Amino acid sequence: MKYFILVVSSLLLLITACTNKNSTEEPTVKSIDTIPMLVTQVQQCSRLYTTEYRIHKIITHNDEIKLSGSIMKHDFNVDLPLGSRRIAIPMDATLKAYIDLSSFSKKNIKHKGNELFITLPDPKVVLTSTKIDHNEVKEYVALTRHNFTDAELTSYESQGREHIIASIPQMGIIEQAQRSAARQLVPLFTAMGYKEYNITISFRKKFTIRDLRQLVEVNIKD
Predict the structure, then answer these.
(1) What is d(CA 160, CA 166) in angstroms, rounded to the nearest whole number?
(2) Which residues form the signal peptide (predicted)?
(3) CA–CA separation, 205 vs 7, rounded Å?
(4) Which of 84, 117, 130, 151 pairs as cysteine with 110 (C-beta 3.0–4.6 A)?
(5) Residue 48 exposed, middle or buried by CB count within 10 Å (0-12, 13-18, 19+)
(6) Number of Cβ atoms within 10 Å of the Cβ of 182
């Protein structure tokens, strides 16, 4: 009888120990690598347009016939008032900034604990359209001069485009594109379980004025 009681007591202790062990241990959770999924999600954004600027510019040109020469070893240069031509051409242009994410890969991602560090590709700026308001073109042509030709007007329009492109560094469009890209992509990362305060989005470098020229494209469709 004593032997039977001893066996039953031992079984009860064993069952209690197993029950306590199962209740105190946390279930093992397998770590899931979310990086490949994250890369795929970002690549699907493809060309991410972030900023659009509409520019209004007045292109001006002024040329005059000058009479120059030399009298008794004295040089002279005189404007002839009857030979002047002036023109003012209003131009509207559209600039768009985008980031090409099609080549985004694991190289653009660093993962440290719960922190996520993203380096985005260089932004690009594209001049997508220019338009001349021909009804608002103002010109003055002296009687002794010929009117502006279509070739000249085309040349002035091309110069206007170049002036717009040259002024891009002063517009802050690259900086705006970077901020906009970060705002658009953060929700994508938080949806995958990352906390916003653990996400850092940066770019390869701070661009100089010389760099910015290389980031500009012209893609005007007639």
Answers:
(1) 10
(2) 1-23
(3) 75
(4) 117
(5) buried
(6) 17
pLDDT by residue for the chain (222 residues), tens only, comes to 443 333 334 433 333 443 444 444 444 333 345 788 888 888 888 788 888 999 999 999 887 665 555 565 566 565 656 668 889 999 999 999 999 888 888 899 998 888 899 999 889 899 999 898 888 999 888 877 788 888 988 898 888 888 888 888 888 888 888 889 889 999 988 988 889 999 999 988 877 777 777 788 887 765
- Does 115 map to a domain? yes
Q: Are residues 127 and 216 in contact, defined by beta-carbon separation less than 8 angstroms?
A: yes
Distances (CA, A) of 171 to 82, 103, 168: 40, 27, 5
69, part of any domain = no
Please give the full DSSP string across the chain, using - where no structure is assigned: -HHHHHHHHHHHHHHHHHHHHHHHSPPP------HHHHHHHHHTT-EEEEEEEEEEEEEEEEE--EEEEEETTEEEEEE-GGG-EEEEEEEEEEEEEEEE-TT--GGGEEEETTEEEEEEPPPEEEEEEEEE-GGG-EEEE-TTSPPPPHHHHHHHHHHHHHHHHHTHHHHTHHHHHHHHHHHHHHHHHHTTT--GGGEEEEES-PPPHHHHHHTEEE----
Domain presence at residue 176: yes
Number of domains in the chain: 1
